[in-house]
């Protein structure tokens, strides 16, 4: 088959920055508690109590461009520019999101129109494991004959956050990250991967249409996340026939710094090799892995040929990992 490679990347964060001090105005909590329990100092928000009414994008806009689409367009445009491509070169847009702008149609439709995507477009919802699900899907489509896929992770989690619930409202943020995935000579970059879901665990983390927002059993999610992420990452390493020592950069789902550190420790990976933006972004679900990956790429932390380990877990409960040659 044909292999795939990442040839461009981009990111977007909404302008409103919400600090832990801002969060303390919502309910009884403190900066110290939030930092110690999660590693989060700030997050960017496109909607919610700290965004001026005039800036709040409508949930059902007539042009179909809500806040998730806006972030996806900005990140996608930057990734295309960096790859030296335009929408006309793209055979498929995969938009990974668990906070689409409306129930129907897929948010990818509006993004596709704005970017002039020549091929198809679809949303992919695997919650916080979404981007890695998308990377494996994009690589598969390239194996099946497409030349280029634009893969975006974009979220406006603040639209489904319960700002009255102090047990989790401080965790979530908004943002988007994008990569262009292109056909490459040889075996390509996806060396090993693992995707999974355990649907019996839906009650641990969910948000209903029209409900109060995200409900989460935090401690159960925490314990399970560490175990499942480690197991999945080990499976991907084994399938890639590499060891953890070969991994230059570990890009975990940015849910909680304690989960990220615990996973790295159990894998035997030094914490310096973790890519982390959680202090600045909070948990951005499908956007978290591409935001951390793009940040590391810009900082020069990965060079061509380096091995990157992606791993995440999310509502569903889903999980996903992949070993990718940069
Ligand atoms: N401020 C101050 N105190 C608080 C707050 C708050 N915001 N929230 C809860 N507390 C209190 C609780 O009431 C509890 O008090 P008690 O001991 O008197 O009963 C105490 O702090 C400890 O609460 P815990 O829930 O045990 O806190 P924990 O250490 O588990 O941290 C957290 C909570 C950060 C949510 C953690 O459980 C976690 O990160 N879980 C995983 C979350 C996650 O990864 N979610 C993403 C999954 S996928 C997705 O993103 C869609």
Automatic annotation (TrEMBL):
Pathway: Lipid metabolism; fatty acid biosynthesis
Domain Beta-ketoacyl-[acyl-carrier-protein] synthase III C-terminal intervals: 237-326
Region (ACP-binding): 254-258
Catalytic activity: malonyl-[ACP] + acetyl-CoA + H(+) = 3-oxobutanoyl-[ACP] + CO2 + CoA
Active site: 128, 253, 283
Ranges where the Beta-ketoacyl-[acyl-carrier-protein] synthase III N-terminal domain occurs: 122-199
Gene Ontology molecular function: any one: beta-ketoacyl-acyl-carrier-protein synthase III activity
Keywords: Acyltransferase, Cytoplasm, Fatty acid biosynthesis, Fatty acid metabolism, Lipid biosynthesis, Lipid metabolism, Multifunctional enzyme, Transferase
EC number: 2.3.1.180
Subcellular location: Cytoplasm
CDD domains: KAS_III
InterPro entries reported in the protein's UniProt record: ACP_syn_III_C (IPR013747), ACP_syn_III_N (IPR013751), FabH (IPR004655), Thiolase-like (IPR016039)
Protein task: Catalyzes the condensation reaction of fatty acid synthesis by the addition to an acyl acceptor of two carbons from malonyl-ACP. Catalyzes the first condensation reaction which initiates fatty acid synthesis and may therefore play a role in governing the total rate of fatty acid production. Possesses both acetoacetyl-ACP synthase and acetyl transacylase activities. Its substrate specificity determines the biosynthesis of branched-chain and/or straight-chain of fatty acids.
Subunit structure as annotated in this protein's UniProt entry: Homodimer.
Comment block on domains: The last Arg residue of the ACP-binding site is essential for the weak association between ACP/AcpP and FabH.
Family that this chain belongs to: Belongs to the thiolase-like superfamily. FabH family.
Protein name: Beta-ketoacyl-[acyl-carrier-protein] synthase III
